[in-house]
Design brief:
With 284 residues, the chain is mainly beta. It has three helices and 14 strands.
Length: 284
Amino acid sequence: MKKIAVSLLLSLALNLSQAALAETLQAGIEHSDYLPSVSNTYVPGYSHGGYSQGQNNGNYRGGYQLETSQSDLTHSNLYQQSAFMQRPQPQQPVIEWFQIPKVMAGSWSKRGDVTVDVTDLRTGIKQASGAWMDNEMVVHMGHQLDKAGNVWHVNILPSEKDSASNGKQVKFLTVQQICEQSTPVNLSTRTHYVITETYPTGQVADMFQQESLNHYFLVSAGEMENRSSNRVFTSSGQPVRDGTLESKFTRIGPFTPVPQMNGVDLQQALNQFLLSKGRADLAQ
């Protein structure tokens, strides 16, 4: 598995009572008040089921393997109801597509993150930080083009990344990522992680969840920034702590279509997704 630097949020303790503060990223995009418990979100050996959220602002998104009539639900209600709707399924990838700004397509790198502030959701106390954390990372934005030249990004979920912290192995399991808002120069996404820390013996030290609201915006042709709000939840889905990070990315490569990922033909998968959304005119 790909090694990545541990996020600041891993260092935020979970020994806090439940509380809920609706941190707003931008344009009314807010964190979920609660998440499903880990047992409802992810069962080892099974797919998480996949689901997509209501309004799409003209951008089609969500796993094409799921059809839902819940489009009028709010995000928090969708999470709560999906916890009851999900049923274990045989392991199979859930393919989620969303459209991204053309100017953001390509490869980007960052050196680290700045912690803007941290909020204790038990007391509501917010503390400014400004601390820098090394976190070198390369990200590739965009995987395929449709017939009109729009750029689409794919997630094949669940996906896993491994790291280490304080002598423990840390597993980041991404169970969902959706596009909340996209304009020619801005992109906002919501990502749901299940994070597990284990001792070298294999014993689980901790398991919790994290919801990240990321707002990417272009500063120049070669520079992009991300302001992210990260909410930590217990494994049972209770909110614990918020943290705001800022990151600066530098473009290191142009966009190149990716033909396949994890054995999936991405052009075929995108065509199938577009057809399922009634957009045969965009299929290649």
